[in-house]
Amino acid sequence: MALFCAAVGRRFSVDLYGIRTNGVTVIHSSFTATSGARLPLYRHYSSPKSRLGIGLQIVSRLQGANAKYELFLQRYFPRFYVLYHTFTKGIQLLFQDAKEVTVIRTRMLTNSVEVQDLPYRDMEKLRQFRRDMIKAIPLLLISIPPFANYLVFVLMYLFPRQLLIRHFWTPQQQTEFQGVNHSHRAQHHWAVLKGLESAGSHVKDGRLKISLLDLCNKVQSGVHPNISDIQAIRGLFSGAPLSIKRINANQMRQLCPLFFLTPRLPTPMIGTRLNSHAIELLQLDRALSRHGLHQLDDSELRRACYVRGLDSGSLSINQCREWLSQWLQFSSHLKVWSCSLPTTQSPLTIDRKEQGVICHFH
């Protein structure tokens, strides 16, 4: 296509030629201010469709190069390929979680919804994302100085369980690390139970004192207590000597590892964190009861049991479902003032299996 346009005046003239070939328009224009002055201008314009095609070609080439790079790593460096694939997938999952959390927060602000009124999955997403970020912040701070990122990669390779969040674990590492974390948690079960027994000896009410000591003896002997046995002593945990505000600092520090909380903090701060964690679990239980236990898939069911203190990886799905059903049945009778109440609802014994006593603030 050719287009000619001319305007002639005493001191001004325009010549414009347009030729379109292969989606590219080449324009020649000349502007004459006077009879002796002439300024030629050449411009190249690409149509939006043409620019889109170029962009798609670039993306396609980058994807092809990345696929060849992954194939090269998989063939010649299989161990490094597993780390590389896990890292790239972890980045995608982390950004996906961040996007979902942003949507949840926006919806909360728009609709004036409180945390305790959220659906179960949204509440669990916020809780887990917050814990992941708390764990990831120290590693991000270490990587700030120049060339410190090389040290970070070494630390990530040597200490993946301690430094990396779950997004950057392989499936095998997730199973392994969950077992290791629970074994560390189970090491404190006996101390927590003995502390509970020791505190029970100072209970003034004779009937409640006998009930508490009998319950401790029953758990130590490997007998799974009934919900009614735990409900009978519920009133002890609303005040002295078993409420969070009344137990001593050593008991608080023994309880922290059960919830993967650090005990290396001042005593008042530990008490505040334990209380917040107990209330958070109580709100999760309320949301899960509304959601319906039957709507959880297998991974969500195991995760819910694990968060509440059970080594769900060593049990069947039916055992996990039964245990969590009993937990929710008991939790439905609790109030905020009794959320320091420990529940000992494990189906296995403390001296034979690590998941024996599940002493949990709730």
UniProtKB/TrEMBL annotation:
It is found in: Mitochondrion inner membrane. InterPro entries: LETM1-like_RBD (IPR033122), LETM1/MDM38-like (IPR044202). Pfam families: LETM1_RBD. GO terms for molecular function: ribosome binding. One of its GO terms (cellular component) is mitochondrial inner membrane. Residues 161-362 form the Letm1 RBD domain. One of its GO terms (biological process) is intracellular monoatomic cation homeostasis. This is Letm1 RBD domain-containing protein. It comes from Oncorhynchus tshawytscha (Chinook salmon). The gene is LETMD1.
